[in-house]
Amino acid sequence: MGVARAFRTADGRDPARQLYDRIGAFLFDQRLDPDPANFAFAWTLLHDPHGPLANAVAALTDGGIRLTRRDIESLGQEAPASARGAREKADTLVAQTQLQVEGFADMVRAIRAETAGFGRDLAASADAIRRSGAEQDRPLIEEVSRVTASMVERVHTAESRLERATLEANELRSKLEEARDNARRDPLTDLPNRRALEEAFGAQVAAGTPLCIAICDIDHFKQVNDRFGHVVGDRVLKTIAQALTESCPGQLVTRYGGEEFAILFAGVDIDAARATLDHARASVAAKRYRLRETDAPIGEISFSAGLTAIDPDQKFGSNFHRADLLLYRAKEAGRNRIESD
Which residues are CB-neighbours of 229 under 8 A, at least 6 positions away? Predict the structure, then answer.
């Protein structure tokens, strides 16, 4: 009893229980599932609230932005095999590009050396022609022909090497573009991801485009996963992604993380954005979803959303936070609805 009492704080609360409560509050605030990986991350973070991990999390969540699984992985947690594979593929491409650049440099140096040799040979031949007499015309012509043939052969060799190197560079460039695009795309839904959203926000604000942002969250999505499994949950996410994309043509529809989607409306006012988003909401709610294998009903699927006009003088995080608060209001008001300012 005395040992247990020694580990209690001055107000009588157990420090371990305090840490446990803080971990639960953190996972709830960030809308992270209480799985072992997230729990371990939260423990590491809150066990040292002033450490480097805490500082990194504070920077990422500035302005009310919530963490995603990808953020947790990037902060040093064990990533899934698919994520590790993507990083290894990108690292390999970078290494190949570096080798290719070095190869280009070597090739250019070799071509310059060969060109210098051509110049010396031609200069020597021209000088010999000037010094020669008429009786030596034939040997000189033969010498010029030999030098010219040698030069042409070297040029052809250099051109072949340059052509091969150019083809390799173009192929690598295509692969790098694909890898760059994949880094900005959600692998499940094939929608642009959070990184793409933030980059588009910056570009559109810089261009002076009027913007609105909507944060959409699937209602009771955890129940879908709990009842039918994550495979069915993934199908639902793909279905919602397709519905939002079809209902919001010309606008940037992204998967922000988990069951959340974010839409950046460009060039429209908030009334037009709300009408478009409400059409998408009604379309999703009107469908009756069934299991592909048994045709058994899944039940109604709907989403709630918060929508706000972008203030270009504020950072992305501040604008996102306003939309997120409106999303919370929609959830508290009964779900399957949109709240806007």
Answer: none
